Amino acid sequence: MTLTAQPSRALQGTIAVPGDKSISHRALMLGALAVGETRVSGLLEGEDVLATGEALRRMGAEITRHQDGTWSIWGVGVGGLKEPETVLDFGNSGTGVRLMMGIVAGHPITATFTGDASLSKRPMGRVITPLTEMGAHIHAREGGRLPLTLTGAERALPITYPLPVASAQVKSAVLFAGLNAPGQTTVIEPAPTRDHTELMLKAFGAQVATEEGPKGVRVIRVTGEPELKACTLAVPGDPSSAAFPVVAALITPGSDITVTGITLNPHRSGLYTTLIEMGADIEILNQRQEGGEPVADLRVKASELKGIEVPPERAPSMIDEYPVLAVAASFAEGKTVMRGAEELRVKESDRIAATAAGLRANGVKVEDLPDGMIVEGRAGTVEGGGHVATHMDHRIAMSFLTLGLGAQKPVTIDAGEMIATSFPDFTGLMRRLGAQLESGANA
Ligand SMILES: O=C(O)C1=C[C@@H](OP(=O)(O)O)[C@@H](O)[C@H](O)C1
Ligand SMILES: C=C(OP(=O)(O)O)C(=O)O
């Protein structure tokens, strides 16, 4: 199904975006490894997270949704998952498959992991290497791709693993495998990445210690064989989803919107820091702590943006937000330089290539670099009128619909279906703010 964004009137109103995807995956996973009933409110009911829930059910966790929208997970205890009788399908979700590989690596069971066409192109070698060191046997398709079959260890071997790439998914896979290893499993990150795994492991009663080293290096240690205690969790709103209405309001003249209850965890808020440096009128209101995460409301007004050089070391704290930042940069005055983000090449699509192609289709000049791009801003006037290929990538889809709202002519994307992986009610919420989004036929 194609979707078209029409140039929009001012966006107005207050919305809450759905729960954070990273935190939602981890809530289901740790709930399944805990003893007793974990109760979760605000869980993201996107396809990626639901696939994780389904995989855990097939391995013995009981997971139910209550009528009030909260979820219960009855865990089996660390090491207690049973062998699934069917293939585990993670759809489009890198987080789901990589973190679950870590969990299964610490169980003496065999499971086969698969995913959709996009996920089957993504590199799994980054988790295969450390999990094999920890005692798992993994047989993957050529190049470390899905589908793959993993047989976990009776007891994993605790290792010390320096991450070759700054990846929260790899860090989390190793820490999760370490839960069923005697002694301490250590991960050394070259740069800090999102720390939801560490925060949530602590909330479930595991011992996790983090040491900050020089130049951003972080050492994280988990003590194996804990009894995880079921708990009550409130998932805050997802800053990666909030990015779309926020940028839409910035680039659509006269807009004034509020997005409530999003986590501003410092390892997730790089986009907001960057937009404010570009001159965005974003007020951070009602800052509070919820469920162990810093949470705030954002009031955003249409703004004249200016291009900047985004510090490359900020990349891990905004890695999923580069496509929509590139959209904001198109409306800025001057060039915006984004570097240090080579990981964008191995997401749901090659996001550097897909973003650059989408910008060009809408009259924006962009230079793609191996690790980012340079966008030549059009000082508020972006032509639009483009047809954009999304390559099964939800963030490319939402980014270019966002661009269409502020552009001179409508923008059409070839397929809107993947939006449901992370932001099921995207079109509904954007329409509530006044955006005109129209569905069309199959492309
Ligand atoms: O751990 C997580 O929940 C995530 C980590 C990031 O991936 P990498 O670890 O590959 O950087 C991010 O892109 C993804 O959307 C979610
Ligand atoms: C990269 C993303 O997710 P995942 O790696 O879980 O597929 C994303 O949501 O932008």
UniProtKB/TrEMBL annotation:
InterPro entries: Enolpyruvate_Tfrase_dom (IPR001986), Enolpyruvate_Tfrase_sf (IPR036968), EPSP_synthase (IPR006264), EPSP_synthase_CS (IPR023193), RNA3'P_cycl/enolpyr_Trfase_a/b (IPR013792). It is an enzyme of class 2 (transferase). GO terms for cellular component: cytoplasm. CDD domains: EPSP_synthase. 3-phosphoshikimate binds at K21, S22, R26, S167, Q169, D320, K347. Catalyzes the transfer of the enolpyruvyl moiety of phosphoenolpyruvate (PEP) to the 5-hydroxyl of shikimate-3-phosphate (S3P) to produce enolpyruvyl shikimate-3-phosphate and inorganic phosphate. Belongs to the EPSP synthase family. This is 3-phosphoshikimate 1-carboxyvinyltransferase. It comes from Tepidicaulis marinus.
